[in-house]
Design brief:
Number of helices: 10
Helix content: 40-55%
Largest sheet: 6 strands, parallel
Order of helices and strands: HEHEHEHEEHEHEHEHEHEHEEEE
Strand order of the largest sheet: 2-1-3-4-5-13
Low-confidence stretches: 1-27
Shape: elongated
Strand content: 15-25%
């Protein structure tokens, strides 16, 4: 009897230790054909993610499978967690998420992975431990450098400027802000002063209010960097109506078509990329991952249709390609 109990204890302990040591993606199986990919953007009303979806749908028509896109009406991690669970219950094979908070959504993503769902991120990364791949629109450091350089060009590399970000927990914006702060230590930017970081909370109204508040709080403000697709057009409209646009220059990230007239009159510059292609690339990569043709390890290679060949980089990152500073000279190149 005692021997049987010892044997039972040993087996139980082994099973528990094995479970603790098992990777989050242990339940995965290799699909034999194209699967269902559930896209989970930050916010359902952001046109950026609707355009990215059209790219995913284009890829779906080429290689099969299915695209589902669902998103919360509030840009919070708590709201995204509910949608992660919903997508799991719908039995999607891959979740592609643009994270509102890198760490807060990680436990829910890990639970999904243990149920056999592959996890990738796009646009805004989540915790590396909670996903296999991150499809990045452009190298984060290069985007941050381009935003700072654009601001410098517009204000003559001298004077006060602010940053109007999306939310305090947005992974990509926070990384860009950290890079900008470090980059400002270089002599080239010595006469530029970052006076405040504000947040638009992924809301047009809040972005308008914050832009006006920054101008009022800092009478010598020369410019604002706005690394958020909703924020830059909203701030441009608000400052235009207040008569401050032009005196205060704006740059950041936004669909070029939404701020075309401001770019053309020289009051705004933009850093942008082909958003449709980001959705297209993400769908191709998600299908390759589901079929075990790539694993997310550095050096993995795959073909993404019309975009050509891609190689997985460090930490599972796949970069769409370089962005551009949008000016009056090249604004016609951008269809969104």
């Amino acid at each position: 009897m005692k021997k049987a109990m010892r044997t039972h204890l040993i087996l139980t302990t082994a099973i528990m230790l094995g479970a603790l040591a098992a990777p989050a993606f242990a339940a995965e199986k290799c699909a034999k054909e194209s699967v269902t990919v559930g896209f989970l953007p930050k916010l359902d009303t952001d046109p950026y993610f609707q355009v990215a979806k059209t790219g995913a749908e284009e890829a779906q028509k080429e290689i099969g499978g299915k695209v589902i896109q669902q998103a919360p009406s509030q840009a919070t991690a708590e709201a995204q967690i509910e949608f992660i669970n919903n997508l799991v219950s719908q039995k999607v094979d891959v979740i592609a998420i643009s994270g509102n908070d890198a760490n807060a959504v990680a436990p829910a993503l890990k639970r999904a992975a243990k149920q056999g769902v592959r996890i990738v991120s796009y646009d805004s990364d989540v915790s590396e431990a909670a996903r296999s791949l991150f499809f990045n629109q452009a190298k984060g450091d290069s985007l941050a450098e381009m935003m700072l350089e654009s601001m410098g060009q517009m204000i003559g590399y001298e004077g006060d400027f602010a940053i109007l970000s999306s939310t305090p927990t947005a992974t990509n914006q926070n990384a860009w802000i950290d890079f900008i702060k470090n980059k400002m230590k270089e002599p080239k930017f010595a006469k530029m002063k970052l006076v405040q970081i504000a947040y638009g909370q992924e809301s047009e109204q809040v972005n308008q209010q914050q832009a006006l508040a920054l101008v009022q709080a800092f009478p010598n403000l020369k410019g604002i960097i706005i690394p958020a697709g909703i924020g830059l057009p909203a701030a441009a409209r608000a400052l235009e109506q207040a008569g401050s646009l032009g005196k205060v220059k704006l740059t950041g990230l936004a669909p070029a078509t939404l701020i075309k007239k401001y770019i053309q009159n020289g009051s705004v510059q933009d850093i942008w990329w082909n958003v449709k292609d980001l959705g297209y690339l993400t769908y191709y990569g998600a299908q390759q991952l589901a079929q075990c043709k790539i694993t997310g390890k550095p050096g993995d290679k795959f073909k993404a249709g019309r975009l050509g060949d891609y190689t997985v980089g460090e930490k599972g990152e796949v970069v769409l390609g370089p962005a551009k500073i949008v000016t009056p000279a090249n604004v016609e190149e951008f269809k969104f």
